[in-house]
Design brief:
By secondary structure, this protein is an all-alpha fold. It contains 14 helices and no strands. α8 runs parallel beside α13. GO terms for molecular function: transmembrane transporter activity.
Length: 366
């Protein structure tokens, strides 16, 4: 790994060190502070991913045209809009600030992935994405820890969240310091493979609902807000640690992707049966969700980078577009089903994740 891989990865670390505290706070702010029904939260999350997918595709396409570094820095700087969510005086302000920053996060992500592709050779690709994912989620874990400690100490969101802008700005500095190659990719074009992976990613997006739902589940089960936000910490921590493990292992891309989808299906089903055991039963399922995420975030972009042809940014944009469509559908359905019963919501997610597994198995067989 050259130094640019670590600069880009530490940029991800500092970005998540900031905005993931806002992500973990958002469902609490809407449902418990402004007293909106859970299905409204599901609709807002659907909009964030549904409209965000347009920004994802746009960011990937513009990365090919204007340069991945320029696009990534522009989007990353505007993620700081998320930090002002804690200052909102009503639910509409909170939703507006959150969505604005989240759209910029989506805009930046394909360009940042393209920078990583440009900084690596093909045989380094999966390891580089594993390192990126590991440091990315490690930053998120620390963010959730300081958020949970702050809430435990009775600090308000208005006192905690504005400070998250500082690590996001540091993240932008690391992107500026990196020097990825802007030359053409040597990736081979394979539209069928890219399409199959995009379809599997779409279904996986439907099954990997917003982390706000497990946060709400644990909060309901334990009646403690800080225990709910810690759920996200277990998810991020396990995903970060397993991502680092994947960076040390040699594993075929398709095998890793299949395992990730399967583990996610098992974790979603586990939320149904372990709800009565409170955090003792639910935290291990959050950990499994993190493991599944590490597999997917490592091997999905690795495969896409190898079959996207010359326009790697557009390929990453297509991958993000597919995942965004899945998130849009998934969070809408989860919000509705969760309003009826958490059992229906998690059963739906588990079955769809199994569908992603079947697609990749069929692709490997061909």
């Amino acid at each position: 790994m050259n130094s640019d891989v670590y600069k880009i990865s530490f940029s991800a670390f500092f970005a998540d060190l900031g905005y993931q505290a806002v992500v973990a706070s958002f469902p609490i702010i809407l449902v418990f502070q402004f007293h909106l029904p859970i299905y409204i939260y599901g609709v807002v999350e659907s909009v964030s991913y549904g409209v965000g997918l347009i920004f994802s595709f746009l960011g990937g396409a513009l990365a090919d045209r204007y340069g991945s570094k320029r696009v990534a820095i522009f989007g990353n700087l505007l993620i700081t809009l998320l930090s002002f969510t804690g200052l909102a005086q009503n639910s509409l302000e909170a939703i507006g600030l959150f969505l604005s920053g989240w759209f910029m996060r989506n805009f930046r992500s394909p360009a940042r992935r393209t920078m990583l592709v440009q900084a690596t050779s093909e045989n380094e690709r999966s390891r580089a994405f594993a390192i990126l994912h590991s440091l990315d989620f490690l930053g998120g874990l620390i963010a959730v820890v300081y958020l949970s400690v702050g809430l435990y100490l009775r600090l308000s969101f208005a006192e905690i969240l504005p400070l998250t802008a500082i690590p996001i700005l540091i993240s932008s500095l690391f992107l500026y310091l990196s020097r990825p190659r802007e030359g053409k990719s040597t990736a081979r074009r394979s539209g069928k493979v890219l399409g199959a992976v995009a379809l599997a990613s779409l279904l996986f997006g439907i099954s990997t609902y917003s982390p706000g739902f497990p946060i709400i589940t644990v909060t309901q089960s334990t009646s403690q807000i800080y225990l709910g936000t810690l759920t996200y910490g277990f998810f991020l921590g396990s995903s970060s640690g397993f991502g680092m493990l994947l960076s040390r292992l040699r594993m075929k891309d398709y095998l890793g992707l299949t395992l990730g989808y399967l583990v996610t299906a098992i974790a979603s089903a586990g939320f149904i049966f372990l709800f009565p055991f409170r955090e003792i039963g639910l935290y291990p399922m959050a950990i499994l969700l993190g493991v599944g995420s590490a597999f997917a975030e490592t091997f999905e972009p690795s495969i896409a980078s190898k079959v996207a042809g010359q326009n790697v940014g557009t390929g990453m944009g297509i991958l993000s577009l597919s995942r965004g469509i899945g998130y849009f559908v998934g969070n809408s359905v989860m919000g509705i089903l969760y309003s009826l019963s958490y059992v229906y919501a998690y059963a739906f997610a588990s079955l769809v994740a199994l569908g992603s597994t079947v697609i990749i198995l069929a692709l490997v067989r061909k």
